[in-house]
Amino acid sequence: MEQGEPQDGALRAGSRKAVGGAVQRRLFLKTTVRILAVAAALLAAWAADGPAQPLPFSHKLHAGTLKVPCKMCHPTPDPGESMTIAPPSVCMQCHSAIKADSPAIQKLAQYASQGKAVPWVRIYEIPAWVAFSHRAHIEARNTCEDCHGKVAERDVLYREVNLNMGTCRDCHAGKRASVACNFCHEPR
């Protein structure tokens, strides 16, 4: 036997361990990827359902097919930071005659007659520490779709765009808007 040569097949045993460890790592990685893929699919399916709303409302029908302008249902009162949701009386301008016998429209009419807002569940909300103006973004020629996804194609809304600082910074950089901290955040 030459110097440095393993005795009794020690090299082969070590090689088997190394190969076995690599196979185990590969199997673990494949299993982990499969679990994450299933979790992502379940999360996407859950998110695509959107939250339960007090009344059915299809943006696909209203904004898509009928081409109702966003600002009709989402006015931007001064100073323009927030888009709001129109009161039920605005909806009843059309729905006093269209689908008036529908149970959902009857419920809408009840909100309108009582002067109550429909308690819609929010899909998106900007944190209080962010200085955000819908009006400024609209004047800069951004579209609703830029931040909210393809709303006019959705029967049910869900959060399809992850609005976070990274998303906003990427958009600002792409449109050559300021990415300075104090552009969106008040100094403390």
What does this structure look like?
It is a single chain. This protein is mainly alpha-helical and 188 residues long. It has a domain of 39 residues. 51% of the residues lie in helices and 0% in strands. It has nine helices and no strands. α4 packs across α5. The radius of gyration is 28 Å and the shape is extended. The protein starts with 9 loop residues before the first helix and ends with a helix. The relative contact order is 0.11.
How much of the sequence lies in strands comes to: under 5%
CA-to-CA gap between the ends? 76 Å
Low-confidence stretches: none
Instruction: Characterize the biggest β-sheet.
Output: none
| Average pLDDT score | 85
Concise account of the structure shown:
By secondary structure, the protein is mainly α. The protein contains nine helices and no strands. The protein has a domain at 11-49.
Key attributes of the depicted protein:
188 residues, mainly alpha, 9 helices
Question: How are the secondary structure elements laid out?
Answer:
Blueprint: H1 10-49, H2 59-65, H3 70-73, H4 88-95, H5 103-113, H6 134-139, H7 144-148, H8 165-174, H9 181-184
Helix pairs in contact: 4-5
